Write a sequence for this structure.
């Protein structure tokens, strides 16, 4: 058998040597940018804490296997047998025989799409050896005896990060595509890549700010967050935007949207084709949206109660002043929905009936089955986060952005590392990833309360959470609830949202959309990519609910609007922002959304 070789371009030695020198220069620039915080005496203590946590967790798993000689032998036999089979099949291929691979990658795994990963025995060996090793590590975690569920979940997460990082597709000398590109360009790709790496470390002030899109192609208020409206209220925490009507009449009852403060609100107003806000206005809703401030050290003491009073309650007061309407319908997205649920429980306890119905979009109020972010939450890790926040008064937005990226490293981290820094190609423009990288900070008091009361102690669903002297009980919330989950959500899993429905005391319409935490929500009727399921209340088991549910093609947005309209169908003449009572403070999308982390 002839071993397939990589097509080798003619190398220009002179160009290669010049590029090698330029590469070293750019590497020095990147190293200097990375070292700058250390020189200033400001190293990131969180990095050391993270390494300690990884070693402690994986060490616990290893201890369970190797403390028992029999278990250690089982572990070694498991991987040894597969590597013997791989060596044997590789030798057979070298002798011209056709053999069945010992292990195959997932068909959806794009890392090994190049034909050389299968046709060239050397690269095929690297690929299969990597897959054998990483799957062996996953088995060790899954089958380790005597470790608790949280430690096992953390170990799975850390193994996934290490496996993603150590893939042979991530290194020039072990990736046939990168070898071919580097030879063809005489190393110019690596020079461009190292220049981008230096820029991204400088932009992150000593930390890598991974670019996932071309930021120069997007501008807030121009081709993103461009639905017409006005800021009619501003305080330390929020700007309240009222959008200009696009219909002659509107539903009498206004809509207040409470977005998450861990991201910018314009995920719901990405562009004219993907804007939930613009679509809602076009249906005849008077739409108000909270735009949260990007907090700094001045906001360190702003806690959950502050976000309720200066956020939701301030917005309700402003809506009444602008429209004359005391009662509204409210919608909360992600952690904005959690805040809405907390506020509704507080309002029920204090006799405040200004919100007549609530919509929750991929929102958790019961954190028993919380998503992958729960691996970051235990007493030791929270104490480390709190210590970091105490020094600054806030959590850097990059920390949360990195955490979200780490949930899907093979999609959101390493493809961009390879494309940007090894292939030397700028990423393509992608509005969703531009929004994803537009990170916000989180005030120390608010974030600590959220981590402890929701993720760590799950107090809200148990009726144990308190704001001030008021105990919160979601069973006292009896207004109609529309509760949207998405089927592939790793942040607010469908099961978690389903179980959370039982916490409310009134009627709950549980709806399940296709795709994940973002794409399942931002699924416009004009260009729908996914379907949705309806089946009424969240009763029994989720699997049984899905079996009995009705699948609908297209977007869930029209179904939601019919739910809103059926509750309060009365219409009135369209309202202009401010209603003549409140002046415009700025055109939408306002000033807070433009504040960078």
């Amino acid at each position: 058998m002839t071993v397939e070789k990589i097509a080798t371009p003619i190398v220009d030695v002179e160009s290669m040597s010049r590029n090698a020198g330029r590469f070293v220069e750019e590497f020095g620039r990147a190293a200097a940018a990375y070292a700058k915080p250390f020189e200033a005496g400001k190293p990131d203590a969180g990095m050391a804490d993270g390494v300690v946590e990884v070693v402690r967790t994986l060490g616990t798993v290893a201890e369970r296997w190797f403390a028992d000689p029999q278990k250690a032998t089982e572990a070694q036999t498991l991987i040894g047998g597969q590597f013997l089979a791989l060596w044997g099949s590789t030798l057979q291929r070298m002798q011209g025989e056709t053999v069945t691979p010992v292990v195959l990658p997932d068909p959806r795994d794009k890392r090994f799409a190049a034909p050389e990963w299968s046709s060239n025995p050397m690269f095929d060996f690297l690929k299969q050896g990597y897959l054998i090793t990483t799957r062996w590590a996953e088995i060790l975690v899954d089958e380790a005896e005597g470790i608790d569920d949280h430690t096992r979940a953390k170990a799975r997460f850390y193994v996934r990060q290490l496996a993603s990082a150590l893939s042979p597709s991530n290194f020039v000398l072990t990736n046939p595509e990168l070898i071919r590109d580097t030879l063809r360009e005489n190393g110019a790709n690596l020079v461009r890549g190292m220049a981008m790496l230096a820029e991204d470390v400088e932009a992150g002030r000593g930390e890598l700010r991974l670019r996932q899109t071309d930021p120069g192609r997007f501008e807030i208020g121009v081709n993103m967050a461009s639905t017409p409206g006005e800021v009619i209220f501003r305080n330390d925490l929020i700007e309240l935007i009222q959008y200009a009507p696009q219909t002659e009449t509107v539903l009498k009852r206004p809509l207040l949207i409470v977005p998450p403060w861990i991201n910018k609100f314009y995920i719901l107003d990405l562009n004219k084709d993907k804007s939930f806000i613009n679509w809602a206005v076009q249906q005849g809703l008077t739409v108000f949206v909270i735009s949260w401030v990007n907090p700094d050290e001045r906001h360190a003491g702003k806690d959950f109660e502050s976000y309720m009073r200066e956020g939701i309650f301030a917005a309700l007061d402003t809506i009444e002043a602008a429209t004359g309407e005391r009662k509204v319908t409210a919608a909360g997205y992600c952690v904005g929905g959690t805040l809405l649920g907390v506020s509704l429980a507080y309002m029920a306890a204090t006799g405040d009936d200004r919100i007549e119905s609530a919509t929750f979009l991929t929102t958790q109020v019961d954190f028993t089955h919380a998503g992958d972010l729960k691996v970051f939450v235990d007493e030791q890790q929270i104490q480390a986060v709190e210590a970091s926040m105490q020094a600054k008064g806030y959590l850097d937005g990059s920390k949360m952005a990195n955490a979200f990226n780490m949930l899907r490293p093979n999609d959101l981290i390493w493809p961009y590392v390879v494309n940007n820094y090894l292939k030397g190609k700028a990423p393509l423009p992608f509005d969703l990833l531009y929004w994803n990288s537009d990170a916000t900070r989180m005030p120390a008091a608010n974030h600590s309360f959220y981590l402890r009361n929701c993720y760590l102690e799950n107090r809200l669903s148990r009726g144990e959470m308190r704001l001030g002297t008021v105990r919160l009980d979601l069973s006292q919330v009896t207004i109609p609830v529309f509760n949207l989950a998405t089927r592939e959500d790793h942040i607010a899993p469908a099961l978690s949202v389903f179980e959370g429905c039982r916490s409310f005391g009134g009627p709950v319409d549980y709806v399940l959309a296709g795709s994940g935490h973002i794409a399942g929500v931002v699924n416009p009727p004009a260009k729908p990519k996914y379907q949705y399921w309806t089946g009424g209340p969240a009763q029994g088991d989720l699997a049984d609910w899905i079996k009995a549910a009705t699948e609908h093609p297209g977007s869930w947005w029209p179904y939601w609007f019919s739910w809103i309209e059926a509750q309060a169908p009365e219409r009135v003449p369209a309202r202009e922002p401010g209603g003549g009572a409140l002046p415009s403070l700025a055109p939408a999308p306002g000033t807070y959304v433009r504040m960078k982390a």
Notes: The radius of gyration is 27 Å. The chain has two domains: 13-203, 229-376+439-594.
